[in-house]
């Protein structure tokens, strides 16, 4: 369903399990950034009522996820660390087209967002199926379902608002680009790392 070409090696979970505090901290900040992204889409596209409505729902869900992760961190006696840079997302950001019409830029921003949600969903699936902690396995399975919904929402809006862009062709380019960079990741105890 997600169209990703390279799956995460399940052995990545062994790295994650070596530092649960780090993965949970990174995950918390990913949720914060996802909420901020949804709010930014509202800010720059306030005239698009349907988009605004859905982005506000997603922003709230992402903040709810942040709270869930923070509660989990506290329940495990861990501490929410400082925000981390997400090198994977920064590389994806460089691929995003920033020229053309406002609608073209919006379309690519939505595809960028869909790509992050797709990889996050895939990573949550790997965690849910391979992590030894049953609480975390259930937690990541539930979040995987939510991320899949966000992915389809972003992709659907890209198709809706595209003017002069062949969205399927551009999405294929995003998939190819993501495939070329994801091989550099999966070696750290971070959601995308």
From TrEMBL:
Q: Which GO terms label this protein's molecular function in UniProt?
A: tRNA 2-(methylsulfanyl)-N(6)-isopentenyladenosine(37) hydroxylase activity
- Enumerate the Gene Ontology biological process terms: tRNA modification
Q: Which InterPro entries match?
A: Ferritin-like (IPR012347), Ferritin-like_SF (IPR009078), tRNA-Hydrxlase_MiaE (IPR010386)
What name has this protein been given in UniProt? tRNA-(Ms[2]io[6]A)-hydroxylase
The record, for Pfam families, names: MiaE
Q: Which CDD domains does UniProt cross-reference here?
A: MiaE
**Coiled coil ranges:** none
Species name: Flavobacterium gawalongense
